[in-house]
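User: These chains co-purify. Model them together.
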Amino acid sequence: MYHQNPVFIPGPTNMPDVIRKACDIATLDHRSAAFGGIFAPAVASVKKVLATETGEVFIFPSTGTGGWEAAISNTLSPGDTVLTARFGMFSHRWIDMCQRHRLNVQVIETHWGQGAPLGQLEAALKADRDHMIKAVLATHNETATGVRSDIAGIRRALDRTNHPAMLFVDGVSSIASMEFRMDDWGVDIAVTGSQKGFMLPAGLAILGASPKALAAMDEAKLPRTFFDFRDMRKSYAAGGYPYTPAVGLLNGLKVSCDHLLAEGMESVWARHYRIAEGVRRAIAGWGLRPCAASPDLYSDTVTAVVVPEGCNGTDLVKLAAQKYDMAFGVGLGDVAGKVFRIGHLGSLTDAMMLSGLAVAEMCMADLGWKVALGSGVAAAQDYYRTSAVEPAKAAA
Amino acid sequence: MYHQNPVFIPGPTNMPDVIRKACDIATLDHRSAAFGGIFAPAVASVKKVLATETGEVFIFPSTGTGGWEAAISNTLSPGDTVLTARFGMFSHRWIDMCQRHRLNVQVIETHWGQGAPLGQLEAALKADRDHMIKAVLATHNETATGVRSDIAGIRRALDRTNHPAMLFVDGVSSIASMEFRMDDWGVDIAVTGSQKGFMLPAGLAILGASPKALAAMDEAKLPRTFFDFRDMRKSYAAGGYPYTPAVGLLNGLKVSCDHLLAEGMESVWARHYRIAEGVRRAIAGWGLRPCAASPDLYSDTVTAVVVPEGCNGTDLVKLAAQKYDMAFGVGLGDVAGKVFRIGHLGSLTDAMMLSGLAVAEMCMADLGWKVALGSGVAAAQDYYRTSAVEPAKAAA
Amino acid sequence: MYHQNPVFIPGPTNMPDVIRKACDIATLDHRSAAFGGIFAPAVASVKKVLATETGEVFIFPSTGTGGWEAAISNTLSPGDTVLTARFGMFSHRWIDMCQRHRLNVQVIETHWGQGAPLGQLEAALKADRDHMIKAVLATHNETATGVRSDIAGIRRALDRTNHPAMLFVDGVSSIASMEFRMDDWGVDIAVTGSQKGFMLPAGLAILGASPKALAAMDEAKLPRTFFDFRDMRKSYAAGGYPYTPAVGLLNGLKVSCDHLLAEGMESVWARHYRIAEGVRRAIAGWGLRPCAASPDLYSDTVTAVVVPEGCNGTDLVKLAAQKYDMAFGVGLGDVAGKVFRIGHLGSLTDAMMLSGLAVAEMCMADLGWKVALGSGVAAAQDYYRTSAVEPAKAAA
Amino acid sequence: MYHQNPVFIPGPTNMPDVIRKACDIATLDHRSAAFGGIFAPAVASVKKVLATETGEVFIFPSTGTGGWEAAISNTLSPGDTVLTARFGMFSHRWIDMCQRHRLNVQVIETHWGQGAPLGQLEAALKADRDHMIKAVLATHNETATGVRSDIAGIRRALDRTNHPAMLFVDGVSSIASMEFRMDDWGVDIAVTGSQKGFMLPAGLAILGASPKALAAMDEAKLPRTFFDFRDMRKSYAAGGYPYTPAVGLLNGLKVSCDHLLAEGMESVWARHYRIAEGVRRAIAGWGLRPCAASPDLYSDTVTAVVVPEGCNGTDLVKLAAQKYDMAFGVGLGDVAGKVFRIGHLGSLTDAMMLSGLAVAEMCMADLGWKVALGSGVAAAQDYYRTSAVEPAKAAA
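Assistant: Joint model of the four components:
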């Protein structure tokens, strides 16, 4: 089909033309001043998006998974202990990576649909009198379940227990879409990628590292070269890059940040909240509920919809793709079949989102699920039309 | 806003990526063989789209309006009589052009919402014993009212009256979207543009001319150079073009035709019917009706929706643009304010169309019109999901 | 070949990426405010490029040929007399158009290689005591021979003879590349197109019209609708366009003008002079000479190179295309075979121009012409390297 | 400058439009069948480009440096011995990476300008009776010096000594440009990137791995997750990818391979030889010589030009960038200042290459080096014009 629908997967996200064009540039010499004119502002802007003044930004031609590896390999040594919770596929994968890098991972198993268990984390920190835990790993937005964790709460737990562990946050599907405050929350490493809130193609791992994380670099014994912060730092200082950078993507990142910052991060977050709330109203209109256990856990970038008893979420995703050429996300791991996922991050309008909800409804009807056509759409319409920001503000 | 909604104006239409890329090409020498490799297949394909084997195709760097001028100036002389009907803004404009070119235009005034009045046209032809009428002008699809006229019926009227007048058809908003059969219908000149069913940017006037029309060229006294068929013919025969062609658009036209013909014109027409019928179901769901007076007149490319008493269609169009960044068409001329127009031609999916209907609904609610949110969307959803073609067929 | 050489035809010219991207935009509603945000600044910028404050600008979805037709049909009536000279293919074609529009064309036949014959024009104006001559037509830059005419000189001739005729100038291949001063030179209509100095695809006819030309509109009896200034004016005044505009090209025109005006028109002219002068040095290095009879006639946008006795310029053009995938221009009309043409306007660097000269040299050697490989290149290199503007200035 | 010159750095290379467009695609669901339609043929084509039937291909969103890391971390364990030679910056960097990953690197120091020292390598293998050496690392094309090493010769050395070590080859700047035969040469891991012979943006590490290399995976103790072949294999088998792939680049890779394979790899290699030989003729024309010590070592993708006594190659590179907006490569490491580098790989025509040579000449003159303008260009012209392939063959 050459007619094109928006996608509703939880990333990669729909890309505005202006950002696609910024990525699609002719070859330029990455050892020239022209590269500096792209890279330096991109890095400076990412710091603002992360809300950090004291941290440093590192950008690798890689993905979020590479970002996780950069986070641990630059700061930890084999045998080091890290504390984390497993409550979805992406928190699981980071745990798996840590284990494969021979870290000692202290895992708090948590129900999928819940977020980071603050009480248990604090208890574990308190119990760790000898400060064996070198880092706490937290998945800010669990993409598998549409659950947001309370990163500020983890920081408070660390502070209350006077624990010196570093705080590493997977913000792949939250940063540039949902509230994220690296400095205020005392995040030591924040990891994200290009293909979510930044509305770019996949291909960049983007990290912020606090002074404390940087101080851990020289002691860290995990081997790394491609992902080595030290090479990056040295090259950046000289206006360069330690190997061939993805110049087009970096230019896209610069332009994406220009738009996000012009809009204002609080407005960007509010925009995502508003689109997401419309989706939640639609779900309620269908008589269904999100996988996230309570409103404080609701993600503003992805919603996993719990399907009715006896129904299979994966069927809906397959049908939507096959019959309507529209992409949603299947349930993964513990919630496979039990949910389908609607991505609602990046570049979306009310109209685009309504088209996704309308197709989801048609699929439900096609599959014989009990849902009235138009019921979810109407609920979302009602919310969108009454919550619309004034055009002047929307003109970002 | 850098987030992008589809447009629902009755042209220019939404452009698929593959066609945009075909238009956006580096400069090439239009006197080289490379140009022939673009132009010759484009012309051959347009003949198939027009369903003509005996006609010739002319393509000008211009628009549909230029196409109208090419049609009359290549075949007629000042003082010549043409017969036509006025039932919308676009039939009106062609009449105006003829008058400015000092043709004697015999106009049958027809209610806006009706199509070409076959009986009156036939009566006029019959009354014209001396065959003063040199051409009958017909607007196949009146974009102002969403009315389709019966071109085959006009041909029958000409045949029944044994009238030798040529038949000129404005197919700007029908060709490549709705059934059009140049040879079968005995059309002498068909006029269209690039920015409608061909899904290209505006910039090309595309004409088919029958042998009879071509035979009129040498007698025609209306002055023309830019639009002269004779220069075009001479240049085409030599593999060239009489002046600088719009090479990128022509390449886009070639690629567009490749897609249309691979899909099959009957499938293209069926696709437009299906999208249009969903729109009509939505309108009925809202308790409203099309401007077109009866189902046989319904256009499959644009619907003018008659707004409730006391409401103003232009308000809806303004609000949709301002609040939801979505483009519909206002009512023009006799139906200004009384209708708003939904374009549904070119590259559209069910999902895209539903997004347009959903926004129209929100605007009605915003304006205090009596409409239940979701009512039109649900009616369209019901139709779309039960009429969906099998994916295999849709894979064009 | 998917490897791409620049073109060296005298238009369309090489297009910078930034301008291609400006043309390649998603469909937007041309009846919306967004269109005004593109069109109004484009028109305002074109006025600056034309160096007119008192004139008005009209832009048609057409080409330079259409621009010629707009010029005459908006201001003249059948039987009106115009005065002009024929000294190349493009002056010839304008004459032909005037004759086909039944104007009385008083032609001064002039040797191809010469420009507008000021003395003879002045004599003809002087002899026209009854002021039958309504307009003088002048081809500023004859693309066929690479000859620049002295438009200011024609204005002086009109002034000295107190002749009220209008002055129409074909600036298709000069405007936005070579010095052009509409107001200072008293030009009544200036005609150009998008695909030369503006570095855009073909598809726009661009005209400037003086108050005197506009005053002639209502008396002009030549029929026109598509090209009617009056419809344009009325629509422009309402922030619109009389039919569907070529929005992408207009956006490209806006961006092109932004770059040209940021560089400064005098710098743009100087840049073209410099590139052209390098070409002329190369030609001298080959022992050849331009078709233009004397240095004051040299065009800075195209050079027609007179080939050695017994050689055929068309052979070189064919060989360059076939063997080296490079496009030059053949000789046309009176100078067919006797010259080949090198276009050197629009977006070109020293390096690009040298690649064209190097290929021309290789072709000469291939064809057995007497030329030392590297001789022309070296002459151009010597000029370019010693005349290079400071980088700071070149950074436009 | 918005006017664009080709680049002459040894990668990233100039990108043809058709490949840029293939990379610039709208977001699609990488868990859909559409992804398989891109990825599977890309992988199959890369196998053909590598000339392997028995090997498997792995593609990471990374760069050549990441490819090196993938090669060692998937097959080796800390403390393992590898044998290699250092004769340029890129062989040096791979050694450095191995040391940082705690491999025991047996380095044969070799003069920069020489290639892999076959005799010394064979001697070292022979001396290694206990087969401590697990892998021989070879830089096929040392980008710093423009030296090609004899990979088949290393294979013969391994065979003659009956040594079971694996053979890992850095083919980043050779593969898809110069002869490379993975199976015939018994290469166990071949590493390359997207931004050289494949004419794509940087962002993909591309590897071929032999069955022997794959057999080493399970024993390998170096930690890796992002670069783990095992995850890739498992996902590929299921038609997927272990994390978010760079879909646009992969589509570009597919299209690039389509073009390369249609041209035929032998023709691609011949094309690079021919362009390179023209550069070498030019260098001789200047009275200079390549850094590569003898003709058998000449690289066909990059030439490091040894500058005259008392001159500094870096000055030329700076001047070219600043004055002529043209990018060459500086000398690195041992040859810093002593050479400048001309990249001549990827998408280049004779004309483009001549423009680079012409600018290099102008810079030499500007810097007061003894060189006759046109001398190198003429030598290259002479070679190019007499070695041009027939147009029919060149039409790939």
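The mean pLDDT of chain B is 96.
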